C-alpha cells in the first residue's frame, strides 16, 4: 500500500474529522446552555456508572472517548464537586480507585437528557435508519476504538 492516501481516502478522513468536531461543539453548546458541565465530565461519569465496582484512574483514562489530557485535574474537580470518591486501591497501594457518588449519578442523568437530545438533533435526524445501520455495522479495525 502506498504511503500517500488517495483522494477518496483524504476526502473521507476530512469529512470524518469535520463531522466529529462540529458534532462535539454542538453537544458542548447544548450542555452549556442548559447550565451543565462539559462533555468530558459526562464521559468520565458514564464510565464509572457502567463499572459498578469503580475503576482505577488509569482505566478511566484508557476508557474515555474524549481527550485524555489533564484527566487527573478533572478527577480533582469532580471530587471537589462530590461527584466521585477516590480511595486507595486494595491490590496496589500506589493507585487510586474511583467510584461515582449518588450526586454524580444524578448529574449524569441530567446531562444525558441534553446529550441524547443533541445526538438526535445534530446527528440522528440527518441519517436514515438504513444509514445508521450501515455505520454501526462497519467492522472496527482501529485499536482502542471499539470495545
Descriptive account of the structure:
The protein is mostly helical and 147 residues long. The protein has a single domain (8-126), classed as Winged helix-like DNA-binding domain superfamily/Winged helix DNA-binding domain (Arc Repressor Mutant, subunit A, Orthogonal Bundle). The chain contains six helices and three strands; from the N terminus they run H-H-E-H-H-E-E-H-H. The chain has helices at residues 7-33, 39-50, 57-63, 71-80, 102-122, 129-137; strands spanning 55-56, 84-88, 96-100. A hairpin with a 7-residue loop joins strand 2 (84-88) and strand 3. The model has no long low-confidence stretch (mean pLDDT 89).
CATH architecture: Orthogonal Bundle
> Quick one: CATH superfamily?
Winged helix-like DNA-binding domain superfamily/Winged helix DNA-binding domain
Helix coverage percent? 55-70%
Number of domain modules: 1
- The string of secondary-structure elements, in order, is HHEHHEEHH
Number of DSSP strand runs: 3
Distance between termini? 27 Å
With strands numbered from the N-terminus, the spatial order across the biggest sheet is 1-3-2
Tally of separate helices: 6
Give the radius of gyration.
18 Å
Largest sheet: 3 strands, antiparallel
User: Which CATH first-tier class would you pick?
Assistant: Mainly Alpha
CATH domain fold name: Arc Repressor Mutant, subunit A
Mean pLDDT: 89
Q: How big a fraction of the residues is strand?
A: 5-15%
Residue windows where pLDDT falls under 50 for at least 5 positions? none
**Shape estimate:** globular
Tell me the structural class: mainly alpha
